[in-house]
Each structure stands twice: as C-alpha cells, then as structure tokens.
Design brief:
- The protein is α+β, with helices and mostly antiparallel strands.
- Helices cover 41% and strands 25% of the residues.
- The chain has 9 helices and 12 strands.
- The strands form 4 sheets. A 5-stranded mixed β-sheet has the order 1-4-10-11-12. Strands 3-8-5 form a 3-stranded antiparallel β-sheet, with helices on both faces. A two-stranded antiparallel ribbon has the order 2-9.
- The relative contact order is 0.20.
C-alpha cells in the first residue's frame, strides 16, 4: 500500500511538472543525433542492455514461499483447466521441486513476459554537466528537447500499454513483491539507485515492441514532437553544419541553442541562435 501511495504521489508530481515544463531532454552523440533527426525515430531499449546492473534486474523481486505456492496453483489451473488428473500430477511435481528451482522458473516467466517491453529515457535538465559528459560524448554531441505530453499521446495511440514514469531513486533495496501485478512491474521499471539522482530521469515504457539484434527498437515519431536542439560547446563544426542543414529542411519549427561554460559559476549557459 505504501508503494502504491508513493507511485500516485510521484505521478501527480510528474503531471504537474509536465504541465509546467512539457519539453524534456535526451542527450545524444552528434552521429546518433543525425540518424535520429534524419529518420524521425526515437530509440527504445530493452532493460537487458542498461548500464546499471541493478536497473530492471529480476533479482529485485522477492519470490517468497507463499507467492511461489500460489504461482504454482495458478499455473496449474491456467494450463490444464478441468483435467484434474493432470493438475494433480503437476501439483505433485511442483511440490517436489526445491524452492530455489521454482523461484528461478518464476524469474524466467517474468523476464519472458517483459521481452517486448522497452524503455526510453529523458531528463528534466538540459544543462547537467555529467549528462553532457556521459551521454553527449563530452560536450561534442547535442541535447534534444521533446514535448513529452505530445509524445505520450502519440506512443499510446500506437501501443496501448505505454506510460510515462518518474524514476524513484532509492538508497537501499526494498524487495518487490507480487511480480504478476502491474503496480509491481511499474515499480520494477522505475526503481534506481540514488547515485543516479542527478539524471532527473523520466521514463517512457512501451509494448509491444520488436527489438533488433542489439535489443534496440526504433519508433517513428512526428517531427513536431521535437521542439529544441542544444549543441554541445565542443561539437565538431562540420557535424554541427550537417545537423543544422537537416533541421532547417525538416524541422523549421525547432529552436536552436548553443551551450557554453560559464567560468564564473561552474555552470552551462544556453543561448538561442537563428540559422
């Protein structure tokens, strides 16, 4: 109940944020940004390729004895219907299995059910020094601003099982229960270690998605969803020119900004320019 209340509070906070600031940001290397802007795509990733080993890891779930017992009963009923002899046989076999074996089977089932779910991530902040360093190739890339309200509407129209979630940063692991409930799945997707708090992350979760060999999925989006492009202060001049050419021809509505370090304050300043 406590987790549900926290989720409700966080979703209200997120909606308030989006009403005041619908544009939120994604950091890219220059080459990736060129591909994204040329193809009008947004990349979703399967959780298995995340750079944090604790992020969306099935081991965050606590499969206790009672849950394993109920899972076995439900599985037998689901797959064997009114074949009581077969249900009795399965129940006997399940009962003989060590708890750890049953637990591993439940983990595999949970992972299987989420094989076609993907995540794409945004930040509330476009001037975070660490984000520019980590995700925009040491300020040689760009930061793209997306209208998340419009994006949520577009993605949900295509995939009904889609939602925006605020990341919940935790200092310690609180095992998740009831792995089959949607509340638990949402908690699983949005729980991260507090060391990542600087990212100020918002996640868009969606399914069904088809992933390539690298566990990535490209989702076509309207050009109007992109509202801003901020250029890193160290971006290659030639790459910047190529990006501006694409933006001028295909995204004439987008506002462009240069970022520069302010050596008096340890911050980045952002200044709009007209191409």
């Amino acid at each position: 109940m406590e987790n549900n209340n926290m989720l409700c509070e966080n979703l209200i906070e997120l909606n308030n944020h989006l009403c005041g600031q619908p544009i939120n940001y994604k950091y890219y290397g220059a080459d990736t940004a060129l591909t994204v802007l040329t193809k009008d795509t947004l990349q979703f990733s399967h959780p298995s390729v995340f750079n944090d080993p604790f992020d969306c890891n099935v081991n965050l779930f606590e499969f206790n004895e009672e849950e394993i017992k109920q899972f076995n009963i439900n599985t037998i009923k689901k797959h064997k219907g009114n074949d009581f002899y077969e249900r009795f046989r399965l129940h006997r076999n399940f009962s003989r299995k060590p708890t750890e074996v049953a637990r591993e089977e439940m983990k595999k089932i949970f992972e299987g059910e989420n094989l076609n779910r993907g995540v794409t991530c945004f930040s509330k902040n476009s001037t975070n020094l660490l984000m520019w360093a980590h995700y925009a190739d040491n300020h040689t890339g760009v930061c793209i601003g997306y209208d998340l309200l419009a994006l949520r509407e577009h993605v949900t129209a295509k995939n009904k099982e889609s939602c925006l979630l605020p990341v919940d940063y935790q200092k310690k692991i609180t095992p998740l229960k009831n792995f089959s409930s949607m509340d638990a799945v949402m908690a699983w997707f949005r729980t991260k270690n507090a060391v990542w708090r600087y990212e100020e992350e918002i996640r868009l979760i969606s399914r069904p998605l088809t992933f390539d060999e690298n566990n990535r999925s490209c989702f076509k989006i309207p050009t109007e969803i992109i509202k801003e492009v901020q250029f890193g202060f160290a971006i290659c001049i030639e790459k910047k020119k190529n990006l501006i050419t694409i933006l001028k021809s295909r995204y004439p509505h987008v506002k462009l900004y240069d970022t520069k370090p302010d050596y008096n304050t340890f911050t980045l300043t952002v200044q709009e320019f007209i191409y």
